[in-house]
Amino acid sequence: MYYIQPHYHGISRTTEDYERMAHAGVVAVAEPSFWAGFDRHHPQTFLDYFRQISEFEPTRAAQYGIRHFCWIAVNPKEAENVSLAREVIASMPAFLDRPTVLGIGEIGLNKNSANELKVFREQMELAIRCNQLVLIHTPHLRDKLKGTKLTLDLLRELRADPARVWIDHVEEHTIKAVLDAGYWAGMTLYPTTKMSTSRAVDMLERYGIDRLLVNSSADWGPSSPSTLYDCAMEYRRRGHTEQELIDVFHNNPVRFLRQNPKWDIGLLGLTTV
Amino acid sequence: MLTETNVMDRYFLDCRCALLEVAAIMDRLPSSDAACAADERLRLLRQAIAILADPGAGPDRAERILHLMSDPIG
Lengths: 273, 74
What we know:
The structure holds 2 protein chains of 2 kinds.
Chain A: E1 3-5, H1 15-24, E2 26-31, H2 43-62, E3 67-72, H3 82-91, H4 93-96, E4 101-108, H5 114-129, E5 133-137, H6 144-158, E6 165-168, H7 175-180, E7 184-189, H8 197-207, E8 212-216, H9 226-237, H10 242-257
Parallel strand pairs in A: 1-2, 2-3, 3-4, 4-5, 5-6, 6-7, 7-8
Helix pairs in contact in A: 2-3, 3-5, 5-6, 8-9
Chain B: H1 4-27, H2 34-37, H3 40-53, H4 61-68
């Protein structure tokens, strides 16, 4: 079985995670820009972070045979500081040409504040101007429903191309609206909170696999890359074929990410010999 | 597609475990605490439990509970 881990914050994890992912069959990860664990005070801190995920982190992953790609953005949690965010946004175009940068993300909302919405809008406008793929973070817990609606409203207003936008962290009460509007929907799995592996499989079965992505949470808090292959195990246990597993856990990330020509990993199909 | 028997065969023990965890958390609430009784979160939890127990509920309990736990949109 081969997996792609399409949303993975490698800098917050030890190499043990890369090793375990390699053993499980993960062939590539894509690392969105996110919160550092503290609020940054200087634009240069963001720029050095973009260098870290586009220069150093691929070398760490490569030691385990795993390809590493990344996204750049001002994340929603730090978007409250609009002036700082604007300084970073002004420097982002220079990073978009780097060989492993796939697009702008993760942008979006955290607490649905007016400042977050401003920074979200400006990064979406940059993404559209520069023809970039977009990865959007929807808020967690009680803020998710409203944040998803605000997200869909903004995308509609800006006439974003749904095929090039991935709205992540969907749950049962937000997934339909995202899929009905034509966007890609991502489900992020947690060991004990938020979306579980079983519920993700329920969603795959209820809505079909078109435009659905599955990823592990892998960040500063309780999270585990193994939830990705735990989900695959549950999917297999419910009677789905190996090709169906590959379609969900390898080929769907390929289908979305290969819209950026820098993504050079192709689709897999099983044949008997 | 899972049948009712499949679901019970596979998930009964997981469900039992999850319910016991919820029961144990509720048992930790001090019964005589007036502030606790007025806690909005407790009201939400009791409403969520009622959704679970609703014999007429369709396959949308998770979605209904998430709606219950969400901030209003408007």
